Amino acid sequence: MTVKTRIYLVRHGETAWNAGGKFQGHSDIPLSERGRKQAKALAERLSNLKIDAFYSSDLSRARETAGILAEPHRGTVYYLPELREINFGRWEGLTFKEIAEAYGELSTRWWASPLTIQIPAGESLQQVVDRCTRAVAGIITRHAGETVVVAAHGGVIRVIVGAALGLDLNHFWQLRLDNVSLTVLEYHGPEKAILELFNDTCHLHEK
Q: pTM of the full predicted structure?
């Protein structure tokens, strides 16, 4: 019988750079007050579930989100640097428009083929795929048959979902992922996963 592991993937709450449309990457930008309220809304939604472990990227916006989610469960959060957002290098702090204006052809090439194009002083998407795949495999191994919450970043969650479903990750930006959205994957061992929920934000809607 296959042991199932359910992973709740949560994108961190909003930051000032999110609100301003700036690329964050490895820049350690904290949650805004709105981002904290968003995380508390999701924490309330998840408060009655049995959750066996909490993991997070080691960047503060994800760490704080995970801490808010873990609080009702009195859970410990484990930080994994492998779950960091894409390192956008020299693009961090810039908007999409500013990147396109400053990096022209390279920007166009990256959006068309992010798996292989290296961002100046940053990463290619393939490097992100490799580290995220290792992180998820480790979580599945350690928590076989359990339910785990993972607080991470938009690019990271797109990569994890795309890899699980066998998608062409050169198109990963076509997966919309909102702040404090909930995405659920059920793993039947490390090689097979079923997507149960994607980018759900019903906890943010007014009651």
A: 0.96
